[in-house]
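Sequence in, structure out.
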Amino acid sequence: MASEQRIRDEQQIRSATRRLLVGSLAATAAFGGLAAAATHHTAAARSNTPAVTTTEDDSFDDGGSAAAPQESFAPPVAQSGGS
């Protein structure tokens, strides 16, 4: 009698553990998908703006003032070659 109850209890515990594991994995995937979607939408909205501003003047004149670098949300660009 006691062993049958113990077997049923162990089966219920295993079943509950499986359900909790599946639920937590599903919730993790759902939140991950939401985060990816939110990141994609914000990146897509920002991609319409220019990432870097340049000037046509090729001369180097520091003039004693340093311009602050601008933050870019564009993906990195791979460059091949070099010295």
